[in-house]
């Protein structure tokens, strides 16, 4: 059953979907270079502007690590999100305390901070899919082995600057040659998906329904009506 919502009740932004493909790559190499000078400059910006919200700073500085069997050996691997500054060509050391959202967006944009995902598997590629600067993940979970190849997939939504209710949910898998592959993606509305139960209680975006098959809840707009609908995908 669908849920319908009038257009006036929601915030508009752009969202995109797609099929199975390799994530967009860039030549950036993730390193642990020292970025203390950059951090000091960002802290000075906050100090000059006055006090903000320490809870915001703590939130965007909190990194996530999930247990997930990426290589299919039956043992959990580790996958973590990191913040990387393309401007500084180094891992971002952390945002200063006392920021507000305007400062957060300014620092993120000026330093071209993107969210990347790294595993503890030797030689594995870094997952890079964000289309714009971002500060972490809105959703980052092990969603199980959807295509029955023995490897578990990761479901992820980037936490972009100037966040909107509309975003894209991605399903990625690590291939046998340690490259990331996008199995599926679809548009979502964070507010509506979070309150919807089309996939069952507590299931927000996608769930396995059978061999090589999953059902997902996606955002759809028809004329002046928003709706959350469901569809089924069969993986090859």
Automatic annotation (TrEMBL):
InterPro entries: Integrin_alpha_N (IPR028994). SUPFAM superfamilies: Integrin alpha N-terminal domain. This is VCBS repeat protein.
